[in-house]
Amino acid sequence: MVTDPHAALRGLLVGRLRGHERRLRRFTEADWQRYADLLAGALLVAVRRRFVAGQDRAPVIRFVASARERYDATGTDVEPALAEALVWAALGERPPVPDDARAIVARTVLLLGLLEDEGCTD
Hints:
Shape: globular
Radius of gyration: 14 Å
Strand content: under 5%
Number of strands: 0
């Protein structure tokens, strides 16, 4: 099984979630760092396609709530404030959020929400 972070992200983007999860389980520390960078880049592009810097906070808050409702099965995996901070950081409105497990989970949920909203997922 390939542990390539590019392949893992590609699996996520095309909806092959089981393959994506299998790849993640085999990641080394270096793989995790590369994957976090790729995921942050993908989220940056997706956020900037949907939102603009300086806009009202309400659409971002509604989007985060919607993404959490759809993809945060427990309701506790993604902190709303962290998810909003990731969106604002992607727009250049706040400082970057450090990469850790919570940020990776939040970025994944947000990216899935943005992809679905664009009609890019089943």
